[in-house]
Design a protein that fits this description.
alpha+beta, Alpha-Beta Plaits, globular, Ribosomal Protein S5, domain 2, 6-stranded mixed β-sheet
Length: 288
């Protein structure tokens, strides 16, 4: 096997709470993350040496600023006798959107190189590598739905036996995650997620229950900088969403709908608009 194709699904944060600032400078998080069927596709090819990155997205960095490059570098440094890789990224996940586009590409590279070079690394071993690359990479490796704590690397898998139907709206601008966390002020948070109630609702497959428990404390920062966040949330609620919430540090906002028909109706009604729009559901890796 000299080449393989790996899917890299995006994620949304169904809840996001910040518990405090850690001694290492990171924030202590409690967040429920969920993979969706908006995916990048990475073609990974074995080459004699080095790391080459290419993409159909002109704005995607090709060097060490790219997490996919960093992932390849991290794993290949452990196996210098195995050769290099050429990685082509078909980019469908928007950049700087709060959807873990960079982290999921990094996870796909770790999985892909592990398979390509038959390294036989376990998932926990890959996740340990992933945590060095980015806080969301361990979740992107594990997949599905999970409650994440710490920097996001301490994961408790949640059963994913039901489908969520979401409409994503990505404004024209992008947001720096580091800048959002730098500006975050615990004292200005008014709406926190009820994580316990969310988990109870999740295990009951209670869509109304989870929608009432969902919040993202980082909205206090991003929505204050960009009024479009609140405007998009209001539009989605008017279109029938049970809940509208920003994902991660933003700026993507998603609406949670009771069923596929409701999400499709909203998708049709919101067109045309200036933002990028994605009608998505839960990612099922078994169908990839």
């Amino acid at each position: 096997m000299h080449q393989l194709v790996v899917e890299a699904p995006a994620k949304v944060n169904l809840t996001l709470d910040v518990k405090g600032k850690r001694d290492d400078g990171y924030h202590e998080l409690e967040t429920v993350m969920h993979q969706i069927n908006l995916v990048d596709r990475l073609t990974i090819t074995a080459i004699p040496e080095g790391i080459a990155i290419s993409s159909d997205c002109a704005d995607l960095p090709a060097g060490e600023m790219n997490l996919a490059y960093k992932a390849a570098q991290t794993i290949l440094e452990e196996y210098p006798d195995r050769g290099g890789v050429s990685i082509h990224i078909e980019k469908n996940i928007p950049l700087g959107a709060g959807l873990a586009g960079g982290s999921t590409d990094a996870a796909a590279v770790l999985k892909g190189i592990n398979a390509l070079y038959k390294l036989n690394l376990s998932l926990p071993q890959l996740m340990t590598m992933g945590a060095k690359i980015g806080s969301d990479v361990p979740f992107c490796l594990q997949g599905g739905t999970a409650l994440a704590r710490g920097r996001g690397e301490i994961l408790e898998p949640l059963s994913s036996h039901w489908q969520l139907h979401l409409l994503l709206v990505k404004p024209k601008f992008s947001v720096s995650t580091a800048e959002v966390y730098r500006r975050f002020d615990m004292g200005k948070v008014s709406n926190r997620p009820d994580t316990r109630a969310f988990l109870e609702g999740w295990h009951r497959c209670d869509m109304i229950g989870i929608s009432r428990a969902m919040e993202n404390v980082l909205e206090t920062v991003t929505a204050a900088l960009y009024q479009e966040i609140d405007e998009i949330k209001k539009r989605l609620i008017k279109l029938g969403a049970l809940k509208a919430l920003m994902s991660g540090s933003g700026p993507t906002v998603f609406g949670l709908f009771l069923d596929r028909a409701g999400a499709e109706q909203a998708w049709q009604a919101i067109q045309p608009c200036e933002e990028e729009i994605f009608l998505v559901t839960s990612y099922d890796g078994r169908k990839s």
